[in-house]
C-alpha cells in the first residue's frame, strides 16, 4: 500500500533520514522506533509531503506521491496526527474536527462521521463547544486522533501519540490506535514507548541515525538482542 524507496531528507548539513526503504501493507499496524533524532518524525513528514526528498521515491497504492502537495496526499487517503498534537487551541473541539475534514465536500457525511467520533469519544462531545486549548493533554491527543480520522483516511500516521500523557491516558490512546486498525484503517506509528508499541504492532522498523538498522515482526523485534539492549532495558 505504502512504499518508500531509498528516501533521504536533508536539513542543511544534517541528514534527517538516509536512504530508507520501507513498506506498509494494507490493514497492518507498523511501528517506527528509535532514539530521539533518529529520523522517525522526518519519515512521517516526508510521507505527508511536508519535507521534500533529496533522494528516493514514495508510492501509495501504486501512485507516486513524493513531489505531490500535502493536500493532494490527504486526498489520496493519508492522514497525519503530528507529534505534540498541534490542535488549534483557540478553535473549539468541533471546529478542530471540521478542520480535519477540510478537504471534504460531502458535508452531510462529514456530520455523520463527526457524530460517530463523538460516540467513540464521549469526552469530546461533552467539550464540543470548548476551546481546544482548555482540554487536558490526553483529551487533546484524543482530539488530534479524531481530527486525523475526519479525513476518512485509509492510512493514518500517529507521531508519538503517548508522549507526555499520564499512564491511564497512555493505555487509552494505545487501545484507540488498535481500535482504529481493527476497524480497517492501516496505521503507521512512531512511538518512544517501544515495548508497548512492539507488542501491539504487526511489524516494526528500528531507525538509528536516519537509517533502518533492524526490521521484523513485533515478536521478532521484542526478541532481538540489539533492540532489547537499546530500547527494552536488556
Ligand atoms: P524525535 O523523537 O526527537 O522527534 P525523530 O526520530 O523523530 O526524533 P527527527 O525529528 O526526524 O527524529 O530528526 C532527525 C534528524 O533531523 C535529527 O538530527 C534532527 O536534529 C534533524 N532535524 C529534524 N527536523 C529538523 C529541522 N526542521 N531543521 C533542522 N534539522 C532537523
From TrEMBL:
Domain of life (superkingdom): Bacteria
Keywords (A to Z) from UniProt: Amino-acid transport, ATP-binding, Cell membrane, Membrane, Nucleotide-binding, Transport
Pfam families: ABC_tran (PF00005)
Tagged with keyword Oxidoreductase: no
Domain ABC transporter: 2-234
UniProt cross-references to SUPFAM superfamilies, sorted A to Z: P-loop containing nucleoside triphosphate hydrolases
Matching InterPro entries: AAA+_ATPase (IPR003593), ABC_branched_ATPase_LivF/BraG (IPR030660), ABC_transporter-like_ATP-bd (IPR003439), ABC_transporter-like_CS (IPR017871), BCAA_Transport_ATP-bd_LivF (IPR052156), P-loop_NTPase (IPR027417)
GO terms of molecular function: ATP binding
Similarity section: Belongs to the ABC transporter superfamily.
Listed name of the protein: ABC transporter ATP-binding protein
Species: Pseudorhodoferax aquiterrae
